[in-house]
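EI: anyone free to look at a 102-residue chain?
SC: sure, send it
EI:
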Amino acid sequence: MVAPNIADVVRWTGGWLFDRTVAGWEVTVLVAGQADIRPLRILGATVLDLEQFSAAPVRETWPQAVAVAAGTYRSDSRVRDGVLDCLDRGLTEVTMWGEGVR
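SC: here you go
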């Protein structure tokens, strides 16, 4: 999951995120900047800083599902490229939320 802030994740996808963690999924949330991560930890997610994650070497594992805030998708080319790479592989469920999603 990629979002501009923790409040957006909890507001727009908190139930979805909780359902996934209860079903046994490993859920990781990438957010820009540091904030109080307790709400996401309560929902069962691991929280990572988007900048640090993006700067890390290329990973060998691919997610089964990705959820992205539409504004982050539009404004961050790294996020957009990552989502498109996941779609190109054809094995990743992609969910978007926020204004501009059609």
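EI: The chain has a mean pLDDT of 86.
SC: 👍
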